Amino acid sequence: MQKKSSMQKFLARIAPQAIIVFTLTAFMIIGAVVFQKIDPVLAEQSFYEVIFFEFITISTIGYGNQYPQTTKSRLFSIFFSIIGIPLLVVTLGNFGKYLTKFYWKAKGCLSSQKTDSELVNDKDMPGFVIALLYFLTFAIGFLFIPHSGEAYSIDDCYFSFISFATVGFGDKVPEIDTFERFSKVTTYLLWGTILNIMLISYMNSWFNTIFARQPYRGRDVEVLIGGQCITVSEITSLVAQQFHASPHQVRSILHDIDYIMDEMQTQESDENSEVLVQ
Amino acid sequence: MEFFGIAKFFINEKVGGKDRVSLDKASYHNNNGSISMRRDDMEIYEDLLFGIEVAEEEEIRVLGRKLRTREALFGEEVTRAGLGRAEYYEDSHMIHSCDKKEPEFVCPYAHLHGKNLRKKPAKIFIENEEVEIELISELMVSGHEDIDDESDDETKDEDEEEEETGIRKFAKLVLPHVALVLLTCTYTVIGALIFYSVEQPHEQMMKEQQIIFVAQKLIKGIFQLKLIYTRQNEFVDDLIRLAAGNETKRYEWETLAERHMHNMSDQLFVAFEKYFLTSNEVKKNAATETWTFSSSIFFAVTVVTTIGYGNPVPVTNIGRIWCILFSLLGIPLTLVTIVMIADLGKFLSEHLVWLYGNYLKLKYLILSRHRKERREHVCEHCHSHGMGHDMNIEEKRITAFLVLAILIVYTAFGGVLMSKLEPWSFFTSFYWSFITMTTVGFGDLMPRRDGYMYIILLYIILGLAITTMCIDLVGVQYIRKIHYFGRKIQDARSALAVVGGKVVLVSELYANLMQKRARNMSREAFIVENLYVSKHIIPFIPTDIRCIRYIDQTADAATISTSSSAMDMQSCRFCHSRYSLNRAFK
Fold first, then answer.
1. In the structure, what pLDDT confidence band is assigned to residue B312 with cuts at 50, 70 and 90?
2. How confident is the model at residue B248, as a pLDDT?
3. Contacts with B489 from chain A: Cβ below 8 Å
4. Residues in chain A within 8 Å Cβ distance of B306
5. CA distance A199 to chain B (A)
6. Closest chain B residue by Cα to residue A2
7. Which residues of A touch B482 (CB under 8 A)?
8. Distance CA B373, CA B376 (A)
9. Chain B partners of A63 at a C-beta cutoff of 8 Å?
10. CA A151, A156, A157 angle in degrees (round to 5)?
């Protein structure tokens, strides 16, 4: 019984992620079909090359070796990126978060040191771990990832970093002539982008400590609820949704609770004084 | 400044001639400069108020893990006892001796209000006993939204000279932002200068080498360009020769054309690949520089914003290494700046887009005309403070739709601008602005790099701020909702309450409430109190709550509650005083 419920919980946690990943995959496949229909240049390319082009577009790397050329396909690429970019950002961001959580969990398991607070506070991975992961990734890229630059030189690093950072100049592009290479390169780039998101979030918090950017409005204050960090405005709108009410109404109820408290206190003091009188 | 919080501290007390050090927790409240502190003699996490049964033990355990303060208050054994409220009471006496394993107090807000963590011993009167306390951690939620974290002495200043602090406050708010923008600009310019100093000599060298190479190899040729033009002349000469010879055989012409075409294209490819000559340079018969100062700036901006058109690109190894290092620090820095600009934009637009507010008002007016005239009640007290019926306290948040509209309008504006500056059609320009502002940057279309470049850069950076805002609103917030599919907020204890402008957990709020009530009372009294609360608190629940579902309530149950909505009008919309309701009961 206990096991089943924990299993269910696990499934409930996994399901939204699975839905997002599934949506993304379906979206990309449908997009590839449409692109091949409306763009004669892309239609000549193989299916996985079009998928790769879509990935390069919505990850905002944008090498520029493949690009839409007709008005129709340009219009479609605008539509495609309006939906695709946030979808991919969220997916990769989630993976990054889970990776970080996994790291803290693993650390908690391996050493006696408790890491609950790091888990709860969504603390970023320490910088040296990210750096280590980067080096490992570069090493793998050095050995296995073919690209148009000079192999086994600074080009490997340069290509990888420029791609991960989603700058994507396009002077060095990965070679995806076979399906195997395509899957290799895509996995590599996906992983690299997740890594880059973690790096940026790490550096972001570092910058924020330097500039001490304080949330200047109450609604932007982040709070911890059920292990997740969300802003006050988000939680209010969420609660409001649950209640089928406007955020304003929810706030007024909270004010009411405040009122109850005051009322009860005054009553209490009244009662006390009554007791004293008696 | 008014603030409220929960603090944990060590107390040095003299008990029976012996020093006793104990860990205690207290809520404190600072009002008008005087700090009042209350020891949390007990904390009860009951959801009577919200009509939710005692949660399962597992739930509590999970919560215990999340908020370790609770774990410290009552361990698992106590919660397993289920309904033993008395035991709750017994065990939730907060004074623990030090030998008891005290988990580190984790303040869930600490990472945000890290600035407010103070570590200094202080002497404070707690229930008329002087004790020395050392705050080990403090949870502070500022009283008002706009006063975020100003030290106490500043509030004194505020009383003295309001105007000066107004300026100072403004400066304090603005200065870091300006500094950040300046820093990013300087960083980009310095980076661009380094790119320029590394890449430009290399390019120069390559072109010079080209001259020497050509001079050595060819007798006539001085320049690759010259070579191309000699080829062209040869071609023309041959053509004239053929034409003069009255040659009409198609075959002859074709072979000639083919030979010269091949020659030409070979030369062109060599010129392009090795010596970085562009078609423009060939057309004008003059070499132009790829790496000028302004193109370096353009390049640096495309790097840090991750647009990455791919023209120009660094070709030397030093340039590439510097590119990696530059982007490593530059990208997050720019991101912070752009997010800041976007935040600023959000903030400004919330105040400046009064049009949207008017639109809401209009919508409300049109809608209310169809319905029965419904006016919320405003009590006399509030009325005397100048709050009338027509005051709009509707949430004026910008919707995702509005931001999307702004994005499209801005992109269209870019389309118009670029179709003026570049020989592009409107749609091509529109497409270019979109691809640029989403930082995809294919590089198939590139803006010119002359005097207008800086205007274009400004356009791009502003556009990035808007896109960031848009992606944040449209994408992340909406897609994040998938997380909450089928997920209910299972216990109200972890919900949030705003009490007098302070944000607290409902559980903590309730604990405080209980603590206030049951302080200095016996156990029996507490149970009675608790019963009293459960029975008598309900009538005090505002009328509004009836039209709102309980968290665990099903939809059909909610329909009943709407019947009481007639009572809504009875409560004042500002202070929510229910005097009229009481009057109704009388």
1. confident
2. 67
3. 226, 238-239, 242
4. 60, 165-168
5. 9
6. B58
7. 16, 19-20
8. 10
9. 310, 442-443
10. 155
Does B115 contact A at CB distance below 8 Å? yes
- The region of weakest confidence among A124-138, B232-246, B351-365, B515-529 is B515-529
Residue at B64 is within a domain:
yes
A260/A152 same-domain check: no
> Tell me, what amino acid is at B260?
H
Tell me what the mean pLDDT of segment B298-318 comes to. Answer: 88
Give the CATH number of the domain where residue A136 resides.
1.10.287.70
Per-residue confidence (pLDDT) for residue A34, from 0 to 100:
93
Residue carrying the six token digits 């070679």 = A175
Is the minimum CB–CB distance between A25 and chain B shorter than 8 Å? Answer: no
Q: Name the B residues in 147-186 with CB < 8 Å from any A CB.
A: 148-149, 173, 176, 179-180
pLDDT tens readout for residues A80-136: 998 888 888 888 888 888 888 888 888 888 877 666 656 655 677 888 889 999 999
On chain B, the residues whose CB falls within 8 A of the CB of A217 are 145-146, 347
For residue B488, being part of any structural domain is answered with no
Rounded to whole angstroms, how far apart are CA atoms B59 and B57? 5
Q: Domain range holding A24?
A: 2-211
Enumerate residues 6+ apart whose C-beta is below 8 A from A96: A194, A195, A197, A198, A201
Please write the tens of the pLDDT for every residue from A11-28: 877 888 888 899 999 999
Q: Are B311 and B276 in contact, with CB atoms under 8 Å apart? A: no
Please answer yes or no on whether A204 and B336 come within 8 Å at the CB atom.
yes
Is the same domain home to B123 and B217? no
Across chain A, mean pLDDT equals 80
Q: Are residues A185 and A251 in the same domain?
A: no
| Gap between the Cα atoms of B300 and B193, Å rounded | 9
Whether residue B277 lies inside any domain: the answer is yes
The CA-based angle B92-B95-B97, given to 5 degrees, is 120
Confidence at B28, pLDDT banded by 50, 70, 90: very low
Residues 227-246 of B with CB under 8 A from A: none
Which range is most confident: A4-8, B418-422, B567-571? B418-422
Residue A137's pLDDT is 92
Length of chain B: 586
**Binary contact (A78, B540; C-beta < 8 A):** no
What residue has token string 């661009």?
B192
Structural domain ending residue among the three candidates B317, B335, B354: B317
How many independent structural domains does chain B possess? Answer: 2
Query: Given an 8 Å threshold on Cβ–Cβ distance, is A64 in contact with B309?
Result: yes
Q: How does DSSP assign B223-288, residue by residue? A: SHHHHHHHHHHHHHHHHHHHHHTT---HHHHHHHHHHHHHHHHHHHHHHHHHH---HHHHHHTS--
Residue A202 counted as domain residue: yes
Counting one residue from A and one from B, how many pairs have CB atoms under 8 Å apart? 269
User: Cβ contacts (< 8 Å) between A89 and chain B: which residues?
Assistant: 471, 475-476
- Which residue of A11, A13, A169 to mutate against B (max B Cβ within 10 Å)? A169
- Pick from B273, B291, B317: which residue ends a domain? B317
d(CA A76, CA B446): 20
The residue with greater pLDDT, B381 or B332, is B332
Assembly ipTM: 0.76
Which has more confidence, B175 or B505? B175
In a domain, A277, yes or no: no
Least confident of A49-53, A109-113, B144-148, B384-388: B144-148
Q: Are A71 and A79 in contact (CB under 8 A)?
A: no
Q: Which domain holds residue B52?
A: 3-145
Among B109, B95, B102, residue whose Cα is nearest residue B15: B95
N residues, chain A: 278
